[in-house]
Each structure stands twice: as structure tokens, then as C-alpha cells.
Design brief:
Distance between the termini: 27 Å
Shape: globular
Mean pLDDT: 87
Structural class: mainly alpha
Low-confidence stretches: 390-396, 400-404
Order of helices and strands: HHHHHHHHHHHHHHHH
Helix content: over 70%
Largest sheet: none
């Protein structure tokens, strides 16, 4: 396998430290959902439905806040936004264990609205540090770092909640998030490249950059994470129906490892792969996964193809957004990308759950995968229309495979 793209990307000043800090910073952020769930269920004595409402409030807040914070980064710079969001996160997580449920619900929404924008900021900084022709391996590394964070963060939160208490876990997660904000404030990664203008700049109207092609990338991002969120729930349901729920951690770990391998391969290839093609393949390979649910090891094997497409799909959408959005609005565009990813996960889990409750666990994979295919078909005309247009001096990234 060709490792030259990775060596060239990591040799760029600032990228290695950015990726290292991002892995550590994302771990407490990935643990917020399970931590809040344990607190609501065990400390407050509420049901999982009530815990789901708190999670939904936080998710809605994050989906609304991400592009707004990105816009502030574009206009005011990174450090003021990090200061405000770090303080907001510290106040929420320090006080949340003492809040009653009716107060916790709106507080979770506000915390989501002012959530530390690590995910979108890292992707914006990658675009600033890395020339366009080298971004594929850089975004592949970023996507793999996200996968590592999701492998470690929630597991540590579960272990701490069960071994000590959810209340202590909430304070630990809050301390980790505050430390992440301080770490990024000290690092202060660039949000504009050296050849891009800084300071006051012409306000770019949304109609100039929020084009049908960019909207198509956002739709692909949402559909991809909808499929992934649905798969997460369906895995648990299939194993529980087969009496092998104890193997859930192993199956999810195998899925994550496949994603890491796929992300590594994506960054090493010499030919760009389109977000639309990757998302379509991810969706198609998800549809039959439930057929491997008779045994946990069969499910592991069935998840290998879809797992191998997880990290490449998310990396390719981030790369496409970085190319389609002008530098002056890249923070807002990356915020919209983060919102699409967040909304997709938030929709995928309950959708798969509703389908499973009404039918059988294997249909959780089939229905969410089919929705991804339908979104790919809906987005395809946008790409075909673009291909019929005259070639510009700076070509935009393909959303569909070259054979179309």
C-alpha cells in the first residue's frame, strides 16, 4: 500500500499536532450521550424515554448551534468562540448533576447550542493547513481519529458510571471537555491558509456558496450517518433476538476496526472516490447485514464491507465541503456539515428502532440502508447536471463515480 500520501500530509507544519490534540479532545465529547443517559436513568430514576428526550434536546441544540458557531469563527476568529463555548460547557457539566429533570431538559438544549465545536473546527483547520490536492489522506486521518475517539470515549464513560457513579462521570466528562477547550485555545490552529485573506473581507451571500452541489454533499452526509445510526441500533437488536447480546461489544469493535482499515486505505489510494459513490455503496452493503444475525461471528463478517466504508464516506464529504465552500465562509459550511452528521445519527437510531419494533431486527438494516440508496438516487441528478456544464478553471470534487 502506498504510504507516501500520509507521509507528505503529516510532514506539513501543524497537522500532526492538530490530529493528536483532536483525538484527545473528542473522547470526552463522544461520551456525553451515554453519560447523560446513565445519569437520567440511575441518578434521577427516570426511564430511557426521558433519557432519550435529554439526548434529543442536546442534539437539536448542537444541530442549530454548529453553523452559528462556525459563522462566528469566520467573523471573529477561533479563540473567542472557544472561550465562550468552553465556559458554557464547564457551567453545564458542573451544575447538571444537581439539576432536576425539568431544568436539565432545557439546560441540555443550551449546552448543545454552545457545544465545543471541536469536530467542525478540526475539519476547517485541516483545510487551512493542507493544500487541496493533499486533503484526502488528511481527512482520512481525521476520520480515523474520530473512530478511535468513539471506540474509547463511550467505553470509558460506561466503565466509570458502573464502577463509581454517573454523577462522578458527569463531572469527569465536563472536566475533560473543559480541558479540550483549553487545549485548543492554546494550540489555536489556523482557520485560513497562508494564501487566504485574513481580517475583514467581503461578506459572501449564502446564495453564492450554498449551491445545489453543496446541499447535495450535506444530504449525502446526513444519509450516511442515518445509515450508521440505524446500524448501531440494529446490531444490538439482532444480537439480543439471537440470545447473544453479550457479544455486542465485540461486534461493534469489529465494525470500528473495519472502518479504521477502510479509512486508511481511502487515504492511501491515488484516485479520488466520490462521496455519493461511497455513500451509495455504504447503504447497499448495509441492507443485507441482518441476514448474518444468526451468530455473532457471522454478523461481524457481514459488517466488514459496510464498516470499511464508514470512515471513507465521512472523510470524503468533509473534503468535498472544504473544496466547495469559499475560505470566508468555511467555518459556517463545516458547521452545516457537522449539523448534517448530527441530525443523521439522531434520525437513524429511532427510525431503526421503530422499524424493528414493528417487524424484525434484520429490517432495521434493510430500511435504513434503503433510505440511503433513495437519497443517493435523489442527489444523482445534481451531479449529472454539473457534469453537463462547461469545465471551470478550478474543478469541483465529483459526487458521483466517473463511470456515470
Amino acid at each position: 500500500m502506498n504510504l507516501k500520501p500520509y507521509r507528505e500530509a503529516l510532514a506539513l507544519p501543524g497537522l500532526r499536532s492538530l490530529l493528536l490534540v483532536s483525538v484527545l479532545a473528542r473522547m470526552p465529547l463522544t461520551a456525553t450521550g451515554v453519560t447523560l443517559t446513565f445519569h437520567v436513568v440511575l441518578d434521577l430514576g427516570r426511564g430511557y424515554g426521558a433519557a432519550g428526550l435529554v439526548g434529543a434536546a442536546s442534539t437539536v441544540g448542537a444541530a442549530l448551534g454548529s453553523p452559528l458557531l462556525g459563522r462566528l469563527v469566520d467573523r471573529r476568529g477561533l479563540r473567542p468562540v472557544l472561550l465562550v463555548t468552553t465556559v458554557a460547557e464547564g457551567v453545564f457539566w458542573a451544575s447538571a448533576p444537581a439539576l432536576s429533570y425539568p431544568v436539565l431538559l432545557p439546560a441540555a438544549f443550551l449546552a448543545g447550542l454552545l457545544a465545543l465545536p471541536v469536530f467542525s473546527v478540526v475539519r476547517q483547520s485541516v483545510a487551512a493547513l493542507v493544500p487541496a490536492e493533499r486533503r484526502r489522506p488528511a481527512y482520512a486521518l481525521d476520520s480515523m481519529s474520530v473512530e478511535l475517539s468513539f471506540m474509547v470515549g463511550p467505553a470509558l464513560a460506561v466503565a466509570l458510571s458502573t464502577a463509581i457513579s454517573p454523577r462522578i462521570t458527569m463531572w469527569a466528562v465536563g472536566a475533560g471537555i473543559v480541558a479540550s477547550g483549553i487545549g485548543f485555545w492554546l494550540l489555536d490552529p489556523p482557520t485560513r491558509s497562508a494564501d487566504e485573506p485574513v481580517g475583514p473581507h467581503r461578506k459572501v451571500p449564502r446564495r453564492e456558496w450554498l449551491t445545489p452541489r453543496l446541499l447535495a454533499v450535506l444530504a449525502v452526509s446526513l444519509a450516511a450517518t442515518l445509515v450508521l445510526g440505524g446500524t448501531d441500533v440494529a446490531v444490538v437488536a439482532v444480537l439480543r433476538a439471537g440470545g447473544e447480546v453479550g457479544w455486542t461489544g465485540v461486534v461493534l469493535a469489529a465494525w470500528a476496526v473495519a472502518s479504521l482499515v477502510g479509512g486508511f486505505a481511502y487515504g492511501a489510494v491515488t484516485r479520488s472516490l466520490s462521496p455519493l459513490a461511497l455513500m451509495a455503496a455504504l447503504s447497499l452493503t448495509t441492507i443485507p447485514v441482518g441476514l448474518g444475525g444468526a451468530h455473532w461471528w457471522l454478523l461481524c463478517l457481514a459488517l466488514v464491507p459496510t464498516g470499511a466504508l464508514c470512515a471513507p464516506t465521512i472523510a470524503s464529504t468533509a473534503d468535498a465541503v472544504s473544496r466547495l465552500a469559499p475560505a470566508g465562509v468555511r467555518g459556517e459550511a463545516m458547521g452545516l456539515h457537522g449539523s448534517a452528521v448530527t441530525v443523521g445519527i439522531a434520525l437513524g437510531a429511532p427510525l431503526a428502532g421503530a422499524v424493528i419494533d414493528a417487524s424484525a431486527p434484520l429490517w432495521g438494516f434493510a430500511v435504513t440502508g434503503a433510505i440511503g440508496v433513495l437519497v443517493a438516487l435523489a442527489v444523482l441528478p445534481v451531479e449529472l447536471r454539473h457534469r453537463r456544464q462547461p469545465v471551470t478553471a478550478t474543478p469541483e470534487p465529483d459526487l458521483a463515480p466517473a463511470t456515470l
